[in-house]
Amino acid sequence: MKIDIVTLFPEMFSGVLNHSIIKRAIEKGAVEVRLVNFRDYSLDPHQKVDDTPYGGGNGMVLTCQPIFDCVDAIRTEDSQVVLLTPDGVPYRSEKAYELSKVKHLILICGHYEGFDERIRTICDQEISIGDYVLTGGEIPAMVLVDSITRLLPGVIAEDSHLNDSFNDRLLDYPTYTKPSVYRGMKVPDVLLSGDHKKIEQYRQEMRYNRTVERRPDLIEK
Ligand code: ADE
After folding, report:
1. Which atom of ligand 1 is nearest to the CA of 85?
2. How far is the CA of 134 from the centre of ligand 1 (A)?
3. pTM confidence score
4. Would 123 disulfide with which of 17, 18, 83, 152, CB 3.0-4.6 Å?
5. pLDDT score of 112 more than 80
6. What confidence tens digit (pLDDT) does each residue in 114-172 have?
C-alpha cells in the first residue's frame, strides 16, 4: 500500500514513521509513505499557500491552487483522496479496515484557520478523528497511518487484531503477565489453569461485561 501525506509540515511525521511497528512496516515494504509538501506546488512567487477569507473574519485560509495542483500531480486511478477535517465523518475501526484495502491513499492535512471550501471537491471522503478541533490535520493523518498500517498483511501477527477493541463492537479483554501476584493483586485463576476453552469463555465474558460497563453505546448500536 502507498500513502501520500499532503502537508505543510512533513517534519512532524518523523516521530511516527521512524519508530516501532510503523518503522518496521515501512522497512519490510508493507507500506510506502511519502510526505508531500504542497507549498512546493504553489505558483506564487513567495510560495504563498493561504490568503484572507472573503467576507472577512479571523486568520488565513488555505488557497485552492497549491493543493489542487499537488493532488493532480500525485493522484492515479487507484487513489482514494481523504481530507482530514473536524467536520468529516467520525473515524471508526470499520473505516480503518476499509482503507487498509486501498492501493493508494492520499491524506490531505488542512492547517491554519481553514481551507477554501472548493478543496472538498477533489476529495473522495472527509474524515474527523473526534469531536475536538486540532491545530491541523497532521495528527489525524498520523492516527490514520498508524491504525491502517497495523492491519496490513505481515505487519503484526495475522490474528492479533481479531480481538482488538471495537471488532464485533466489543472492547478488548484484560491481559496480564508475570508475576502472578503483584502488590497483592492476583491474576485471575482461570488464566493460570491451562484450560483453553475456559480461558476463551472468560475472555469473551470480560469483553462483554467491560463493554456494557464502559461503552454501552457500542452494544446498543
Ligand atoms: N483537523 C483539525 N481537527 C481535526 C479533527 N478532529 N479531525 C480531523 N481533522 C482535523
Report:
1. 9
2. 5
3. 0.95
4. 83
5. no
6. 999 999 999 999 999 999 999 999 999 999 999 999 999 999 987 778 768 887 889 99
Instruction: Give distance in angstroms: CA of 63 to centre of ligand 1.
Output: 18
Q: What is the pLDDT of residues 47-73, one digit of tens each?
A: 999 999 999 999 999 999 999 999 999
Question: What residue ranges line ligand 1, CB within 6 angstroms?
Answer: 84-86, 110, 128-130, 132-134, 137, 140
Is the separation of the CB atoms in 90 and 217 below 8 Å? no
- Å from CA of 103 to ligand 1 middle: 24
The label of the residue with cell 486540532 reads 134
Q: Give CA separation, 108 vs 124, 161, 209, in Å.
A: 11, 27, 39
| Cell numbers representing residue 27 in the block | 522497512
Domains of the chain (ranges, CATH numbers): 2-158 (3.40.1280.10), 163-220 (1.10.1270.20)
| pLDDT of the residue at 198 | 98
